[in-house]
Amino acid sequence: MAATRKTGSLSYVPNWLVLAVLFIILHLTSSKTQKKPNIVVLFADDLGYGDLPMYGHPTSSAPHLERMAQEGMVFTQFYSSSPVCSPSRAALLTGRYQVRSGVWPGVFWADSTGGLPLNETTIAEVLKTQGYDTAIIGKWHLGVGVNQTYLPTNHGFDYCYGIPYSHDMCPCPVCFWPKVPCGLNDNCNSQWTGCPVYENDRIVEQPADLLTLSGRYAKQASRFIQTSAEKGNPFFLYLAFQHTHHPQFAGVEFTNTSQRGEFGDALLELDWAVGEVLGTLQQAMLQDNTLVFFTSDNGPSLRNEQRGGSAGLLKCGKGTTYEGGQRVPAIAHWPGVIPDHSRTTELASTLDLFPTLAKLAGAAVPSGVVLDGVDILPILQNKHGSRELFFYYPTSPDPKYGLYAVRYKQYKAHYYTQGEVNSDPNNHDPDCRPSAQLTRHDPPLLFNLNNDPSEQFNLGNMSEYKQLLKTIDSKKVEFEKTVVWGESQIAGHSSPDAEPCYNKGCSPFPTCCHTPQWWWP
Ligand SMILES: *[C@@H]1O[C@H](CO)[C@@H](O)[C@H](O)[C@H]1NC(C)=O
Ligand SMILES: *[C@@H]1O[C@H](CO)[C@@H](O)[C@H](O)[C@H]1NC(C)=O
Ligand SMILES: *[C@@H]1O[C@H](CO)[C@@H](O)[C@H](O)[C@H]1NC(C)=O
Ligand SMILES: *[C@@H]1O[C@H](CO)[C@@H](O)[C@H](O)[C@H]1NC(C)=O
């Protein structure tokens, strides 16, 4: 339109000159708009709302994340879509609640034959349509499958390096320097094959040397950024740490260096890797054209007691639909775009990254599928966001019960509550313990989270909130009408054939799976 107007007003100038000028203008502006922003998503594992210094932890240290926060924005009401790992990751990558994609109930295991269905569209696939280089470094946890069907390279990632599930799902021979075995309470499962490290669809190390893993993750991340920068391609890096999941540990450089024991050491090592990524961006002079978003997959696992994480002032932790299970730290960094030293109380979720990143890249979101996220770019520019609802599904959702809780503006209604082992069998709050059985609430428990973030004062049976509960009920019904439950990819889908093994078909299984250079018997 602008072009037509211009030719009109310049009609006394020779046509060839107008065309030449237009060509130059178009060329200049298009090469500018072609500079699509790079995207880095840093995803911590089981890092709770109260675990970081800028969220109030008195002895945690995370200097690089603090720098990110100072130069960027801290979210105080950011939610993961699930209180546990696989579903939370499925929703992050698809922008859809886990029950839609079939990533329920619970999580994938080392012998799971299922995975994130291949017909789900991941954000990596969306960004690839706009010429992005894509990589996942770290923990995948969306299935491997018998024929490695579900690995990231089949889900839009050009490059993958890491363990495809949690490091407590394989024998954890050593956790602490110098080669001290993990503690008895770590649930390091010894029935499955050693933790495999995949590079693309090839196992390059089994079992994984956990002590050096973070160093390699940081190195691969930096290498990926540098390579894309040299090629001049925009990139999407998804760096999913194994820290601070249990068993907590750190490499030699970080063991015994924090004030906060093993958890603090693990966090310091994670933080160091964040620093490596930020440093690489800075060196490549890409900081001003890169959105770096840091958050966590779910609340803290509290069952490891002194080694566990912290939900701060929030109730319970991982595995529950109380705030401690799903409200997580989140920090956004993009100098020049996101105002520094900013802090937002707007509601946002991991579900929102999908539409936000697609928009940043100028990509269309998939049509014909229900997305659950909203664009949070306004929030990043210090304006109001558009999310006023958030829906909570438990660790193991069941179509019979549906949603456990609904957040509407500052209110949260619990229709069902349940404790969970990851929120600690000995938790001081009996509501968090696994012994707190599934309980239906009618009227729902109702909390005003602005006044009462710890969910202590139930308003649900006070007459003045009747109308509000009706409104929340209708929002819940409206949402649940849109939910078609994807066939479960987890329940009843397991076989030893799916366990990753470097020497597929060997015996004695599973120790025969070790890669040749491994020193551990
Ligand atoms: C993927 O395929 C399954 C099985 O045919 C179907 O039920 C589901 O709706 C599909 N999902 C998407 C996102 O197309
Ligand atoms: C895996 O691949 C083999 C060989 O192509 C095939 O026979 C088998 O059916 C596949 N299994 C699954 C679960 O895809
Ligand atoms: C860390 O501290 C523990 C407990 O004091 C000790 O056993 C271990 O040797 C220390 N490790 C290092 C690397 O300092
Ligand atoms: C409201 O609910 C609380 C907690 O469930 C209970 O202790 C209290 O007795 C109830 N009050 C009324 C008026 O029902």
Instruction: State the CATH class of the domain at 36-387 and 487-498.
Output: Alpha Beta
Strand order across the largest sheet: 7-6-5-4-8-1-9-10-2-11
User: What structural category do the secondary elements indicate?
Assistant: alpha/beta
CATH homologous superfamily of the domain at 36-387 and 487-498? Alkaline Phosphatase, subunit A
Helix count? 12
Strand tally is: 16
CATH architecture of the domain at 36-387 and 487-498: 3-Layer(aba) Sandwich
Query: Bound compounds, please?
Result: 2-acetamido-2-deoxy-beta-D-glucopyranose
Poorly predicted runs are 1-10, 29-33
The third-level CATH topology of the domain at 36-387 and 487-498 is Alkaline Phosphatase, subunit A
* SSE string: HHEHEEHHHEEEEHEHEHEEEHHEEEEH
GO molecular function, one term: metal ion binding
InterPro entries: Alkaline_phosphatase_core_sf, Sulfatase, Sulfatase_CS, Sulfatase_N
Family: Belongs to the sulfatase family.
Domain Sulfatase N-terminal: 37-363
SSE topology:
Elements: H1 2-9, H2 15-33, E1 38-44, H3 63-71, E2 73-75, E3 78-79, H4 85-94, H5 98-101, H6 123-128, E4 133-138, E5 159-162, E6 197-199, E7 202-205, H7 210-231, E8 235-240, H8 261-283, E9 290-296, H9 323-326, E10 330-333, E11 342-344, E12 348-349, H10 353-361, H11 377-380, E13 389-392, E14 405-408, E15 411-417, E16 439-448, H12 466-481
Parallel strand pairs: 1-8, 1-9, 2-11, 3-12, 4-5, 4-8
Antiparallel strand pairs: 2-10, 5-6, 6-7, 9-10, 13-14, 14-15, 15-16
The chain binds 2-acetamido-2-deoxy-beta-D-glucopyranose (4 copies).
